[in-house]
């Protein structure tokens, strides 16, 4: 089912047009070239092939098809990219690919209708008080428009009546599902009433919920949309759709608690900022951030009690493989307060420079307790338990400073950490599973970026030939080709193809797993294959790889011979290889 949808989308979309929305491209021969959208460069090295429907950057090594491009550029999972491109292509996905009540209007359409209603209300007579409130908070008209801020009138069912006038009564059930309306004993009424409304969009830019801020009278200061088919608080971050590109560019995210904090940071020159939605930081939110950066600056209220409560979320981020830095604000200030001063932006930038890594921040937070003999043991235990929950490599880099802060000898801290880690593991085993919180499961021997930049052109071309030439991959012997690969991941792709795996099945499996590296390797092969004579490209590439393998073997034997360790057979092999590499022997004879 998914494969058919992928094929249909790719048939209807031209990769050149999709990428052209992100990168200015100029025709160069039969391909198009531009500045790479994934890394900074002054000389264009990013190529798009309309013929093969692939892209490849000769600078950073990224590449693939239209799906991998959208996944990497927009930070989407494969299902999200599938929906994103299906909408662009006009392909109707089968059930489960997007909530929809009927063929005429879907839940996302209703959300956009509601957003328009709220925005219109803000600029009507009904929104005068709300506009004055926003002005007092330092927001200008252009800010209000840019961030789509609206006003929910203090009326029982004004939104409900508006939606019914626009689309009929059938829309009410969809609006109920979306959490815009509430069904009570006295009928159906608006959830948001008498509140400034902030739209919450997902990473794709889809409107999934609202946050409402009361400006007068009694009631909860903020309310959010309830959980719905399209909205889950624990999996959402306010303004991530606007911030994601800046996060990737600046290689950091700034995480705050409030809507106004995040808005003010964007306005004051920190567009890499996002906000949680009234919840402690979750693993899902950490995973969202990790799509775009390795570093997160947490900027929460300076209130000590609040910081204590947020420690758990901070460790969640760190355990998910993010480098967490804590920004300490002046007492009694939140980011909005600080940024509202004349030099707020400059002061905040200085605070970012002074941000502490999480383990050192934890020690600083506990300094009053560490100085109190009656509280010291408990404070030490809390800090060491936090450290023990982190990957060893991350925790160990801070141990000398942590030991000094705790007033302990380094060896004593190391022994204590080992005990805590052992206890964590034992507790997990008792419960029937292995807790991996102390193991960084996100760390790989080499990152995707590293692998992409180290793709070997010849290996990539050979994989691409096997990918596109069914006759070749079905006739070649794995034992001949596999030893030619140095990169294990490239060898795995070649092996899968040589063992009869279908390319489209492999593509689907990679995309669903969120692994775009194999597609980058194949795109590199498609780009480099043009450097070779097309009538015998396969023979040329295999010969070159065989020569590389023989050269490596020659160097091994040469060193053994120099040390007097070579056997008679190895000396004979060395002589044959020397003759071959000097061009004195044909490839068929030398391969015996």
Tell me about this structure.
With 592 residues, the chain is α+β, with helices and mostly antiparallel strands. The protein contains 31 helices and 16 strands. The strands form four sheets. It has a five-stranded antiparallel sheet, sandwiched between helices. Strands 13-12-14-15-16 form a five-stranded mixed sheet, with helices on both faces. Strands 6-9-10-11 form a four-stranded antiparallel sheet, with helices on one face. Strand 14 (295-298), helix 13 (304-319) and strand 15 form a beta-alpha-beta unit. Helix 18 packs across helix 21 and helix 23 (457-468) packs across helix 29. It is globular, with a radius of gyration of 29 Å. Residues 95-103, 428-447 and 584-592 have low confidence and may be disordered.
Note the main attributes of this structure.
592 residues; alpha+beta; 5-stranded antiparallel β-sheet; 5-stranded mixed β-sheet; 16 strands
Major sheet size, sense and barrel closure: 5 strands, antiparallel
Number of strands: 16
Percent strand equals 5-15%
Structural class: alpha+beta
| Poorly predicted spans | 95-103, 428-447, 584-592
What is the overall number of helices? 31
Taken from the alpha-carbon principal axes, the silhouette is globular
Strand order in space, largest sheet:
1-2-3-4-5
Binned, the helix content reads 40-55%
Radius of gyration: 29 Å
Whole-Å distance between the termini? Answer: 48 Å
Mean pLDDT: 85
């Amino acid at each position: 089912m998914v494969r058919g949808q992928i094929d249909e989308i790719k048939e209807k979309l031209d990769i050149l047009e999709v990428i052209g929305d992100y990168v200015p491209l100029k025709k160069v021969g039969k391909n198009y070239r531009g500045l790479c959208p994934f890394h900074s460069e002054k000389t264009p090295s990013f190529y798009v092939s309309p013929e093969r429907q692939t892209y490849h950057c000769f600078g950073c090594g990224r590449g693939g098809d239209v799906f991998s491009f959208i996944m990497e550029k927009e930070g989407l999972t494969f299902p999200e990219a599938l929906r994103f491109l299906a909408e662009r292509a006009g392909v109707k996905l089968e059930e489960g690919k997007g909530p929809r009540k009927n063929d005429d209007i879907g839940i996302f359409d209703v959300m956009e209708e509601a957003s328009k209603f709220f925005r219109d209300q803000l600029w009507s007579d009904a929104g005068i008080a709300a506009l004055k409130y926003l002005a007092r908070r330092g927001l200008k008209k252009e800010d209000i428009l840019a961030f789509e801020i609206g006003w929910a009138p203090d009326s029982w069912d004004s939104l409900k009546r508006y939606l019914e006038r626009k689309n009929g009564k059938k829309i009410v059930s969809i609006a109920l599902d979306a959490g815009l309306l509430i069904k009570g004993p006295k009928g159906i009424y608006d959830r948001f009433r008498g509140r400034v409304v902030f739209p919450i969009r997902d990473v794709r830019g889809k409107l999934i919920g609202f946050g409402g801020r009361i400006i007068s009278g009694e009631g909860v200061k903020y309310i959010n949309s309830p959980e719905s088919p399209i909205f889950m608080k624990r999996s959402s971050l306010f303004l991530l759709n606007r911030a994601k590109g800046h996060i990737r560019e600046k290689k950091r995210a700034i995480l705050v608690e409030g809507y106004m904090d995040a808005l003010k940071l964007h306005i004051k020159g920190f567009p890499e900022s996002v906000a949680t939605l009234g919840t402690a930081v979750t693993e899902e939110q950490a995973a969202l951030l990790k799509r775009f950066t390795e570093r997160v600056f947490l900027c929460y209220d300076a209130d000590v009690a609040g910081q204590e409560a947020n420690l758990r979320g901070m460790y969640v981020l760190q355990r998910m493989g993010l480098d967490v830095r804590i920004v300490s604000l002046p007492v009694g200030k939140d980011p909005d307060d600080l940024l509202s001063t004349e030099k707020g932006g400059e002061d905040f930038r200085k605070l970012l420079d002074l941000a502490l890594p999480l383990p050192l921040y934890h020690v600083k937070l506990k300094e009053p307790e560490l100085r109190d003999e009656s509280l010291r043991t408990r404070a030490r235990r809390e800090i060491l338990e936090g450290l023990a929950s982190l990957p060893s490599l991350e925790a160990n880099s801070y141990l000398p400073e942590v030991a000094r802060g705790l007033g302990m000898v380094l060896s004593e801290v190391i022994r204590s950490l080992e005990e805590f880690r052992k206890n964590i593991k034992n507790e997990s085993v008792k419960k029937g599973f292995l807790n991996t919180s102390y193991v960084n499961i996100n760390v790989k021997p080499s990152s995707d970026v590293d692998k992409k930049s180290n793709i070997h052109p010849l290996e990539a071309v050979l994989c691409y030939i096997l990918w596109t030439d069914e006759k070749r991959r079905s006739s070649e012997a794995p034992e001949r080709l596999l030893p030619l690969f140095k990169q294990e991941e490239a060898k795995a792709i070649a092996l899968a193809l040589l063992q009869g795996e279908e390319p489209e099945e492999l593509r689907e499996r990679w995309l669903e797993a969120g692994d775009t590296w194999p597609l980058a390797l194949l795109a590199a092969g498609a780009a480099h294959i043009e450097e070779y004579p097309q009538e015998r490209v396969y023979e040329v590439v295999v010969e070159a790889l065989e020569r590389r393998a023989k050269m490596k073997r020659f160097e091994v034997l040469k060193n053994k011979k120099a040390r007097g360790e070579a056997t008679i057979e190895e000396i004979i092999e060395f002589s044959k290889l020397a003759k071959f590499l000097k061009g004195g022997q044909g490839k068929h004879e030398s391969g015996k």
